[in-house]
Fold this protein.
Amino acid sequence: MNDKVRLAVVGCGDIAVTRHIPTIMNHSETELVALCDSDITRVKPLASQNGVRSCTDDYRTLLTDDGIDAVIVATPPWVTPKITMDFLKAGKDVLCEKPMALDLETAKQVSQVEEETGRKVQIGFTYRHDPLLEKLRDWIRADRLGSPLVFRLGIYDEIWDPIGNPEHYDRIHKTMEHGIPSIHDGAHIADFLNMLTDSPVSHVEAFGLQSRPEFPTSNYDTSVIRFANGDMAKLEISWFYPVFPQGEFEVLGPKGLAVFDRFKRYVELRTRETTEREVHEEDWWESCFRIQLDRFVAGIRSEHPFVPGTSEGIYSLSLTKAIEISMERNKNLFSGGINNGISKR
Ligand SMILES: NC(=O)c1ccc[n+]([C@@H]2O[C@H](COP(=O)([O-])OP(=O)(O)OC[C@H]3O[C@@H](n4cnc5c(N)ncnc54)[C@H](O)[C@@H]3O)[C@@H](O)[C@H]2O)c1
């Protein structure tokens, strides 16, 4: 392999343009050599701006390109698995965006192809690379919060603005045609829980709410998850509101509370005796995408599997699918209702 890892990016939409491509361009050990998007009008200007030698609207033309060492696949999850498997079969390692698939059978096929080809997949659980999240995990592992733990996570994303930003509205609306927010943004959240609890899930109860009739699915998901070790998680994952409530990321235990503020860039441990704060000044997105790419490059050069790899991807999808199943089951739960006799709605 050359000094630099030669990368192709397939899928040049929002996350590739705003994060993956600038991160590759700023990295001392990577070279961006090819770009692909099914919409060729996106790739041509990107290629000339970044001095990329090759651009195409058909990723299959890149499969046999010996000048490509590895590939970042940043396509929607309904097309990502096939492209990922094709590059593995072509002998290239892949960093594929989350969720790795929309159903477990397909996710397991990707893992199977990984095993058969001996190539490797890293999953784009970008935010697990945050040093502050690793600090939180260290506190949990050192029993600083005690046990059992309650994880309180509220994530609100994708502002509803159909007039001001129709491209974004159409993209997110289309994504919701392929699953509730828990399947998409929830992929990261399920990965946080995997990283922080280290315990199997034992029970999931979830409810969904659709705030506007024109949405293809619920856009406000709330779930309670129980873990075999007694930990519990309360999740709110929501898209498409015009204004967001404050998000939350807290871990509560018998010895204290940990508060993680990803935007203000600190994590804090509060007990009766002490308050400890760890700060990381670097911008959250820049930091997470940079470290994700560092680890992708290091993984390509080593014999070890990527972390997060397909097993983390399958764990995350298993949990978010359980949320989806529970939500469906709970749609008509207790349809008799409790009535105070004066309710007008
Ligand atoms: N890790 C993160 O923080 C993060 C953040 C946002 C999105 N994502 C994930 O990244 C993926 C892309 O999201 P996005 O918001 O950039 O979407 P997007 O729709 O803006 O971009 C996807 C691009 O893929 C292209 N594409 C579709 N099919 C293709 C094909 N067969 N071959 C080549 N190109 C094809 C589309 O034309 C589009 O340009 C999704 O899986 C999403 O969940 C991850």
